[in-house]
Amino acid sequence: MTTPQPDLATALHRRALTVPTPALQTLVWGHPGRCATISEYAQQAGISTEQVLDELGPFLEDGSVDLDVVGGELFVHTAPAGRPAPHALFSAPANLWERLRDQTEPALAYTQWRLIRQMERAGWRVETDPKQVTAGLGPLPTPPHLGIYVRHTLVPLLPFPTAAALTAPDGLLTTLEHAGAAAAAVACDNGALSATVTAARSWMLSRQLLPTVSVLVVESPRFAPTILRPTDSSITPISITHAVADHRLEAPQRTPALPTDRR
């Protein structure tokens, strides 16, 4: 199918955001989901934060991009006027901060950004494109917009849910099960592993039929996985090692068996 082409007037007004430094330009257009803050752009482009600000300066002045100061960090918002942006503004693909801000308010977006960076430092590959996270799933009232790769399998990630949100008959795990997910990852705060595991297992045991969703609980700050399978008979969690992972997690529906090799 041929992709419709914009008319000449639209093309003339849809001006692409371009900057002088090739490495920064590559980040903006080639890897838009990789960066969120001025510091991240500077570090990955190999230039100073002052240079990043200088090169973005004209686009900050005309409103094509904006800066959000949250938690002491300077975040770049690539579409402050919304999408599609007014034709007079310069356009760029959505960066990581815009993806997060599109889903929620700044404080929660900041919490999610920190979670992403912490999990990456712990060895996880985090997916931040919501379309990728929900690809192949049915309708969801509140689609998860983060996921983690367990070897080559993408698993939806639920960041810091309450116990009630997990155990409710129409809660997060139930809706993921109905949508066809075979596994879900749950991130919890340091010290909340036992309560989170108990909530997930209680949900499994409360089902009239055997659940089809396996749950990986990852506790801050190490984010080592603890697995709960629908076929486990007790509430005791199983801490996963790479050697036994293939035998501990069964995912009979959408997602194949999930080992815990994070890469």
Task: Based on the model shown, name its key terms.
alpha/beta, Arc Repressor Mutant, subunit A, Trna Endonuclease, Chain: A, domain 1, 2 domains, 7-stranded mixed sheet, 11 helices, 17% strand
Strand and helix map with partners:
Blueprint: H1 8-13, E1 15-16, H2 22-29, H3 38-45, H4 49-61, E2 66-70, E3 73-77, E4 90-91, H5 96-103, H6 106-121, E5 125-127, H7 130-133, E6 147-150, E7 153-159, H8 163-167, H9 172-179, E8 183-188, H10 193-206, E9 214-219, E10 225-228, E11 238-239, H11 245-248
Parallel strand pairs: 1-4, 7-8, 8-9
Antiparallel strand pairs: 2-3, 5-6, 6-7, 9-10, 10-11
Helix pairs in contact: 2-3, 3-4, 5-6
What's the domain count? 2
- Helix % is 25-40%
Within the CATH hierarchy, at the fold level, what is the topology of the largest domain? Trna Endonuclease, Chain: A, domain 1
Globular, elongated, flat, extended or rod-shaped: what is the shape? elongated
Distance between the termini: 35 Å
Strand order of the largest sheet: 5-6-7-8-9-10-11
Radius of gyration: 21 Å
CATH C-level name of the largest domain = Alpha Beta
Strand content: 15-25%
Account of the protein in words:
The protein is α/β, with parallel strands linked by helices and 263 residues long. The chain folds into 2 domains: 96 residues, Arc Repressor Mutant, subunit A (Orthogonal Bundle), CATH 1.10.10; 135 residues, Trna Endonuclease, Chain: A, domain 1 (3-Layer(aba) Sandwich), CATH 3.40.1350. It is 36% helix and 17% strand. It contains 11 helices and 11 strands. The two termini are 35 Å apart. The N terminus is likely disordered.
